[in-house]
Amino acid sequence: MNNRRKLGTLALLSLILTVVLLAGCSKSAAPSASPSESPSATATPSASASESATASASESPSASGLEGKVVFWSMWSNTEPQAKVIEAAIAEFKANNPAVEVELKFNGRDINKLIKPALESGQQIDIFEQDPGSALANLKDHVMKLDDLLQQPSVGSDGKSVKDSLIPSLIEWVKTLSTEAGLEEGYYAIPQQPYAVLFFYNKALFEKAGITAVPTSWEEFLAACEALKQIGVDPITFDDAYRDLFIGGYLGSAMGSDWTDSLVKDKTGEMWKDPIVKQFASDMQQLQEKGYLSKKIAGNKYPAGQQDLALGKAGMYLNGTWLPNEVAATAGPDFRWGSFQFPTVSNGNGEGGLQGLTFGAQGLLMNKNSKNVPAAFELVKYLVGKKAQQGMADQALAIPATLDTEWPAPLAEAATAFGNAKVNMPWGNGIDNGGDFSTGTVIPVFMELATGKLSPDAYVDKMSGAAKKFYGG
């Protein structure tokens, strides 16, 4: 999955701590799922799943009374593990609702360019998958408000409504997206396959280096880097697809995402003279001079950095929770994954630190012009039911969206980050919010700093002057 650079402030994420303790890719506006791009395909449940569904239906005839046709467009390709989970959920749905015909189309990430014209042409699409943020912004004339439907009983979470069966912070985050998109406040998407941006590390290398606890402060982070260097491992690596996460991670940890957003939009260039920017530049110089940054970062093209982590050549890599699934073939089944948040940076303004986390989820949405809402939402209930979500965790190494569901082992430590966080940070903690200035100046000049081509003072002067020149036209 090569999901990158997308993702409001949310004060509810602390609720997830109870949940997780019980349970264990090109840029766009908000990250959408991104396993490797694959051709579109239309599919129905596999023969074995269909046979099982038919057998179950004959044993327990449906009393649902639902009938007609439901069309579901998926964002996955038919070769991805998520597709197998979806097929199984549809098979179970069909077993209990044999009078409903389900047409399933696997579009892959092509759905992002296909869904809008299809909806506008009036094509029958009852359910579709997309990133909720971009979907509500771009498809707000087509999405259905789901508030009343969410009160229906869930599938697999006894005694809970669909809404109450889901991780509270995620469903409430989706609600905040409605007003941001100019819609009436409410729930227009159902979150699934949550993700977060974290440092991923190789537990075996940490143990070999004598690192007994993940770093939570910058000072502890430096100590971990030195220990990894002593055993001959590059402490930190990244590649061109995720360079923004490092600069955004540091500044966001120190000052929060609102400050970082203002920094990249400052037309005077004066914010780049803030002492925290000089501190950042000095700390980056230290990482570079002490050899804590891989010498490959200047030329690393995605996915080179994450491959080095998977091969044991690097100790830490800042990425999304889709990473273990992305490099599973390289890392192998015995790779022991760990994760932690960007460490707390001193001398900040109190708006950053571990309370902030870049997180989100994919979403299931319904067409407000659907002619078969009862059957369509019943299918949605199976797709976000506990059994399907456990399948996503087991087969796709995805974080489940339902409560009391076991997380995949490679992401177990991500639960700590979700528990710490209270504020939803945007992708890159706002460092990408300057548009062309971010992509054309902020990131390239950061790489000059990270590769030792600029001193801290020269970095501050160059960024201040570049901002003033860019915004001055």
Automatic annotation (TrEMBL):
InterPro entries: Bact_solute-bd_prot1 (IPR050490), SBP (IPR006059). Keywords: Signal, Transport. The keyword Signal applies. Residues 29-63 are annotated as: Disordered. Residues 1-29 form the signal peptide. It comes from the Bacteria. The keyword Transport applies. Belongs to the bacterial solute-binding protein 1 family. This is Raffinose/stachyose/melibiose transport system substrate-binding protein.
